[in-house]
Amino acid sequence: MKRGILFLTIILLAAFWNFKTEAQVAPPPRLVAQGDLEKLVQGKEETIEAGGGVFFKISPQEMFRQNMIIFDKKIKVVGLEGGRFIAYARIESGPTIYWIIGEYTGGAHCCGVYHFLSRPEGGQPVRYLGKTTGHNGGPLPLGGLCIYHQGQLYFKDLDNRFDYFHASHADSRLVNFPPRFYHLTSASLKVSNLPFKEVYLRKVSQVEEEISKNLTLRRVKPPALLKSGFAPGFMMMEFTDPLGQLLIKRTILYLYARQDQEAWQTLERDVPKYYQTTDWLKELGKDILEHLSAAPY
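The structure assignment produced for this chain is given below.
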């Protein structure tokens, strides 16, 4: 009798575990609809039906700006104060529906931002999940940014925190670098780069090729990684040559892949090989870590 109860318990636990595991796997996403919000009449308030019972009420403000109120049927979900809302897409992943809204915040080198909403399974109320940090330039076409990876739904974005990192925007090799991935569920939007470790390591190989090509063009060995910039102080110093940026680019990729030891060892190995001194190396390392601490990676 006891053996029978134990056997039944094991079967029930296994069934529960399989159900739990299957429930954690998101079905592949399907692009259901997308719309162009740039075609709205200038200076006129408009309401857009985005499908699935969701409506966007967009109101023009002064200059470049717009406000958007999002409704689930007649119930207000959230109000957004933005630059210009460019486009939206509706994605289905099994019983869950997602809406993605692309916004251009305006500015010379800014910013493509994406807002996310979801209606969880069972027709639950729509919820606002949040928005991305923003990358240089307007939002990208929304249809191709959702990624199905290892049974989970992700959104591919661009990390722009290293723009102006000891270089002007025009000279920087770190604009919209590296890619950043958000894990998307019916309840949350969170940065989750580690499942894409191989993406970063493949890019390391590409940067290594760039480093080799750059070395063939080099004629002198500069004094240090950095040189004086247009204003005094360490933060205004600029890279001496393109190779310095490539070394830092490789370091950042290793850090995103969570290979910290490799990141710093390769940098400390190569700087003495390619520069006359290791001046500013420690300061640059600290500066990289401060940039990384500003937001999850």
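Interim note for the steering committee: The two ends are 54 Å apart (CA to CA). The chain has two domains: 28-144, 199-293.
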